[in-house]
Amino acid sequence: MSTDLIVKLEQEANTLVRELDAHPDARSLFEGTADAARYAGYLVQSYHYVRWTAPLLGLAGRRMQRLGRHPALAELLVQKAKEESGHERWLLSDLRALGWTKERVEMTPACAAVRAYVNWNRFTSEAGVPTAFLGTAYVLEHLSVVRAGLAAERLVARGAIPGIHRAVTFLRGHAGADEGHVAELASVLRTLEDPAEREAILLSATTTRALYPALFTPVEEAAVHDVG
Question: Which DSSP string do the residues of 79-139 spell out, in sequence order?
Fold first, then answer.
């Protein structure tokens, strides 16, 4: 049953990659052809969800510790919170290279998909099944492994965005780190036998897969421009 969970998580992760490859704005990022406005819009929305990653991982891990469930897994979540801490600063640095101040980034509203993503993971961490965050992490880290580094290389090689060589810290940082994280997650997830936990983890993966493409929607991109 635990192996079946990994297969299903891989299916969700691969489905997200296919959906993004078919999305014009996401594809332009992966191909390195995105213009400055679209790339900045993606980074801004990423900032709005990434800044919550470490706090929510820590919240989930500490709640598991209080519940006395899966001590090793709880420690992994707390450790991952430490690893993810400060990654939002990578995004602010990249955006600064594109001419965005921190104030402008924070004044730009999070899109509906990001708000839903944060609220869902807050719910699972605070009141739902705290291990569910691992489903979210699996999908996003898989995406980073297969697309983030490639996107960074192509953006820099094309060189169409002024200052782009200083604006790919986030993409490069996740591409380098997340391959080991995916293998680590799979190893841990294979130890889980509780059907409710497996279901919650898969549900979070599916929710993340459904929400993530909306980071690239033209409507939210227009909202970014309005703030500027």
Answer: HHHHHHTTHHHHHHHHHHHTT--HHHHHHSPPPHHHHHHHHHHHHHHHTS-GGGHHHHHHH
Q: What is the pLDDT of residues 16-56, one digit of tens each?
A: 999 999 999 999 999 999 999 999 999 999 999 999 999 99
Q: What is the pTM of this model?
A: 0.90
pLDDT at 85: 87
CB 91 within 8 A of CB 32: no
Comparing CA positions, the residue from 211, 186, 202, 50 lying closest to residue 124 is: 202
Residue type, 98: L
Residue in 201, 170, 208, 171 with CA at minimum distance from that of residue 186: 201
